């Protein structure tokens, strides 16, 4: 659907040259939510702005649905842009227009007749959940409502792609979740391809199918969110995973706790993917004559299932304990015995 | 009673002068609005990073604006006499003051327009570009509406400066309250005439300020 080939953007200022995007290659599938994560200055915004050519690339190509965006002349580019929606961190609404008029703006640009425009705006207002606020001005809306207007506006011309540059970074956590949910719904119901830029791992975790990690203008790692989460290779990725999982979580004070147990075994259970941990723990406790208590752990949900680690104490007969561990090992959960009492 | 307080004031003549001041101010304000917006847009669009980025053009427009702003109005009006004669076929009366008034205040307003446009959120212009808007659409549907309160308050400031200029234009016999105060008041030592003219000019200034503030606050939805 979207192919990025050898894409580069070099900014030359008087004092130095910056390789904001450096020989980037990506393939984005139709209908997926593709996340790009990186720290500030990694080149994420430059990258997303190259996609609709708000910046012209120094080198390389952006191909959307077989059309080479980078080769388009001015007029053709304008028409292509009408098929690429974009939402922004600071919403970028026209304060002089009401909600309704803001959403109608891209339709005016596309030359949609007045009557059709009105109907389409009504649909969009319903879609993003702003019924009743049609005639409010942006200054009368909350951040979350402003972003809903931004989303409705971006969807007005039925785009093929939606570009989101830090779309939730100016919002509080709850509002962020409601906007992410709206994006998931749109992705599902309209089959819209979404490219989303963020510096927050939890955003990636909650809504993305695949993710690319950017550093210094390059993609250092990419793949299914769960894979990248569970096997982070680069230093940056590990840092981002820690954002969600907490730092060195397995070891905080675990040593002291372990020493306190006189019987049983302390085991670490690593969850990756399609297993539900509650069901596993309770079924083990039912099947075998063991007591299981959870000492520590952190499980996080991605769209492809859970990921994380639990540290549990399994107590009972040695034989039963071993059977229980063998059973767990036969599931996709990895087991690691860290301490025998 | 009025004629006792102000024995030298001829009411009929005073009304004519007041009308002339209004006439000069309003007509030149319209001209200033048109040329000022054009100059301001040119300055803004040709600036670095602008939609029509063009160093040479920007330099030329900026130079013209700066030169005309630097010339004191009283000198400008004298310098423009031949041009006025050519354009208006007369160098006397309120009509003859119009070219100088417009040329004197359009560059001033142009700068205010440029400042107002620069205050428009870059992100909003970018959003319009991302939607595939033409430059014309960006100008008429984004830049001008989004800067409207500043454009109107700038126009108010300009209008008040213009009222002052119309008084100065009295030196070429433009008519209006300034002219009236000078020839009928100052030169004939009739202080009451000067006083009444001053009060009328202050009232006119207040009217413009009031209307301007009212429109500005009505427009501002931020
Ligand atoms: N217009 C520009 N001129 C010069 N340098 C720029 C410009 N835009 C971005 N940069 C530089 O490019 C790099 C990447 O910026 P950006 O894409 O905004 O990063 P991110 O969105 O990941 O924070 C930064 O070093 C930034 O300073
Ligand atoms: Mg950015």
Written account of the structure:
By secondary structure, chain A is of the alpha/beta class. Helices cover 37% and strands 31% of the residues of chain A. Chain A contains twelve helices and 14 strands. A six-stranded mixed beta sheet of chain A has the order 6-7-8-3-9-10, sandwiched between helices. In chain A, strands 2-1-4-5 form a four-stranded antiparallel beta sheet, with helices on one face. In chain A, strand 4 (59-64) and strand 5 (67-68) form a beta hairpin. In chain A, helix 3 packs across helix 4, helix 3 runs parallel beside helix 5 and helix 5 runs parallel beside helix 6. The longest helix of chain B has 36 residues, at 11-46. Chain B starts with a helix and ends with a helix. Chain B is elongated, with a radius of gyration of 20 Å. Chain B has a single domain (2-219), classed as MetI-like (MetI-like fold). With 222 residues, chain B is mostly helical. Chains A and B meet through helix 2 and helix 3 of A and helix 7 and helix 8 of B. Bound molecules: adenosine-5'-diphosphate and magnesium ion. Magnesium ion binds next to helix 1 of chain A. Residues 11, 13, 18, 20, 38, 40-46 of chain A line the site of adenosine-5'-diphosphate. Chain B: Belongs to the binding-protein-dependent transport system permease family. CysTW subfamily.
Features:
A: 341 residues, alpha/beta, 6-stranded mixed beta sheet, 14 strands, B: 222 residues, MetI-like fold, 11 helices, elongated
List the SSEs and their pairings.
The complex is a heterodimer of chains A (341) and B (222).
Chain A: E1 2-12, E2 17-28, E3 33-37, H1 44-51, E4 59-64, E5 67-68, H2 74-81, E6 84-87, H3 99-109, H4 114-127, H5 143-155, E7 161-165, H6 173-190, E8 193-198, H7 201-207, E9 210-215, E10 218-224, H8 225-230, H9 235-245, H10 254-259, E11 265-273, H11 277-287, E12 290-302, E13 305-316, H12 318-330, E14 334-340
Parallel strand pairs in A: 3-8, 3-9, 6-7, 7-8
Antiparallel strand pairs in A: 1-2, 1-4, 4-5, 9-10, 11-13, 11-14, 12-13
Helix pairs in contact in A: 3-4, 3-5, 4-5, 5-6
Chain B: H1 2-5, H2 11-46, H3 55-70, H4 73-79, H5 81-88, H6 94-118, H7 122-130, H8 135-146, H9 148-168, H10 176-186, H11 191-219
Helix pairs in contact in B: 2-3, 2-6, 2-9, 2-10, 3-6, 5-6, 6-9, 7-8, 9-10, 9-11, 10-11
The complex binds adenosine-5'-diphosphate (ADP) and magnesium ion (MG).
InterPro entries (chain A): AAA+_ATPase, ABC_transporter-like_ATP-bd, ABC_transporter-like_CS, ACT-like_dom_sf, MetN_ABC, MetN_ABC_transporter-like, NIL_domain, P-loop_NTPase
Domain ABC transporter (chain A): 2-241
Protein name (chain A): Methionine ABC transporter ATP-binding protein
